[in-house]
């Protein structure tokens, strides 16, 4: 199908394109303003020689992020494949738990990993008890970073890919099953085309997360040898107060990330299947099923065990923290911030995604794809300083602005994940139902109410859950804004850790994890039901 | 959907506006790091204690770290609302002083009880402790008694330290090694390298690794065992004393020149360094007080073993060389 | 002869189960009609093996088909849409009818395409074919699979009148030539009248000879 022929089938939606372009420009301007404010503040400072070896950092970071991406995609595809084929009680909960990893604060997951895989973890203790010798410490160094990243990112990849696999039309599965396709040909002919369109965007996101990963690299990296550009930027800003150097490093990071994003978003859209299929059951051969169960079991041990360890540590610590008024205040703030950012993020993703789906001009599609990644490309510490300066330059007290800044920043933070969830189906609707929509002469709003909203129901739920949970977990951006009364659960957890109160921290981590999992299992179902009621 | 959005905005605005109450009394705005102002930290009782007499409102503003408070004031310059910064330490005092943002405190401070004499015109000491490596007597009954003994241990003895660029104890260790070994510092770092399991961003992360028994020793403070004895009744966590002597961390507070409440700020610092203010410090910030509290000091603190020798480095030397020393450390452990 | 004898199935929550009894002969087209929701697709799913009956029998020339999984049943499918893998060429779609590594695959594919009335489009992607061409490709694949039973689910509904007539003729011709037992599900009276040697209608969950 030629590009021109698709274009003719797309309903003309100039307002959607305009709105998306406007939003893209606004986000671009915001980033430029952040960097500009920092540079302006640095104008008076003496120039210090740059300490960081940029090329070394770029190389190390790229190797780490590249390996993370490849491993995460392989594991993610395998996991999605298993979950798509297997049916068992608690499958929904397992899917929810897998997705919970990526939105749980990195440090919580890292400590969960250590509880299982560390020197004093479950496996080493078990091995010592059974065989008299530990299996060694695999959780540190580059291996540790990769392992932790794969746990986080592969589970996320699996969640996204599973949604695509579950949406394969029944008719296609019937034909495939009646043709007697073996597991390999089934994957190549039916599964791969269904997920191929999602992979470039997913790869870009995973690469960027790993490229900019911070707490995990610092905790498990083992030392300055395994560093990322983001860590160097942090050092330049915080330790050396070298603002100009920080902006320079940030620009390097933005450039490197943009290359990845451009490469991913320049690819032509691939139509994706929509909505869950009627639940066609087609089991693979026993041998393949055995492999699927085995893979699933390995993934459960590797991915879910660390999260269970977090829960177990929380239970062991007791929930005395529930008696503290600060806890409830922090919880209320977290939920408010989470809901606000989730709504904003989903709105942004839909607006940008609809604009992108409404056009076939490659340059425009790329431009509208870029702002989604703003937060991943711009280091959090730079955003933090820049937002702080912007707010002050606007004459607003930082304490007053803090909640709004957190909502905006967290919406931007979750935007890539939300857009990756909503973008492909929006594109698919425009491409597969475009003709029909056009011929019926549906207006843009009817197109949304009658077609996109009902079809997107479950994806919308997943997107809201993602954005909500991400926003529970991140606060880096208001590092400087601090006010006495503004606390969230993660912030309270860090404060508890910093005051020797590891029991309180463990309890909060467990509560966060439960919250995140409930949101992940519940929100998609809720939204699907709502959307179906509309349809 | 609209209603939810409106509700959320209302709650957000409510959260934002709580800070803007109580305008009739003068407000003393103090920047500090998060732990100091936290629910469990000394900020809460200090605020209550000072407000009893001052006829003012104390407003703690917590950045994510002590260096963060300085950076925020540097960014804000003359327009800062801060009257006081609490929580910088002697390792960064020189850099802070060089910004020219701090005023003289004008206090006599003649009843201090610090390892060394205190003569600082701008900064008032808040609390102190010596940096030290913790060990668990169950796991490691015989801890090393010097850096060299630590280095000589088998390589599977692991320690966790903090990044000197982000955590004050991390910087403290760099200064400690430098003060103890001078030109041999790089050699010591190279020797430590195989023992370093990881270099964390924050103190709390290393310390959690230690509590989870992922490492045998962790860089912390000689006062850390007090928490475990007092709060958990656990006497197995101890600080290993090194023969070279230990480098102290002395947390300080300073008044900003830009403050329009110099008098009130000065009163607060006097309160902070008085026995009344100091008595809340040990069991909230888990550091030694800077005055002799006599009976008011929890007896556990008196039982903590203390180093025989306190190492020091001249402030000018720290300010001039800390970057180079950090680079030396990073290169050696890389 | 394909024989259904009180082949019974109920969807979850369905009050009175379907119970299908019918016979279909080789070389003939047997049509099933009935309004939407009457159970036409359920019937096809039972025959193709996507649903397992609760009771009753399904036999082909006396051989019990019920225990066989879909891929082992002597059944080919032709659906209204999604019959082809759109990202593959016509040839490769047809080739899926052969077991992997079958001898002289290229020649047999070309022959099947020719028999289905297609020339020179073998290398074209399925997504670029017209509706009629797609159904011809699917029929060509059926030829290679060489299964006794062909199930047609509204196969002509997406086609224009002319193409429809031509494809209908092709189906009848292939059915007669290869002795297929072809079952056509359609609610187009036109299709049914033009093709069927025997007609059934679903009424109240049961098949009635029309």
TrEMBL record, chain B:
Signal peptide feature range: 1-22
Sequence intervals crossing the membrane: none
Pfam families hit by this protein: SBP_bac_8
Predominant location: periplasm
Subcellular localization, as worded in the UniProt entry: Periplasm
UniProt entry keywords in alphabetical sequence: Periplasm, Signal, Transport
Single GO biological process annotation from the record: thiamine transport
GO MF terms held by the record: thiamine binding; thiamine pyrophosphate binding
Family matches, as InterPro entries: SBP (IPR006059), ThiB (IPR005967), ThiB-like (IPR005948)
GO CC annotations, alphabetized: outer membrane-bounded periplasmic space
Domain of life: Bacteria
Family per record: Belongs to the bacterial solute-binding protein 1 family.
The protein's name: Thiamine-binding periplasmic protein
Species whose genome carries this gene: Devosia geojensis
The organism's taxonomic lineage, starting at the top: Bacteria, Pseudomonadati, Pseudomonadota, Alphaproteobacteria, Hyphomicrobiales
Automatic annotation (TrEMBL), chain C:
Gene3D superfamilies per the UniProt record, alphabetical: P-loop containing nucleotide triphosphate hydrolases (3.40.50.300)
Cited Pfam families: ABC_tran (PF00005)
Stretches assigned to the ABC transporter domain: 2-210
Keywords, ordered alphabetically: ATP-binding, Cell inner membrane, Cell membrane, Membrane, Nucleotide-binding, Translocase, Transport
A GO molecular-function descriptor: ATP hydrolysis activity
Family that this chain belongs to: Belongs to the ABC transporter superfamily.
Protein name, entry field: ABC transporter domain-containing protein
Phylogenetic placement of the source organism: Bacteria, Pseudomonadati, Pseudomonadota, Alphaproteobacteria, Hyphomicrobiales
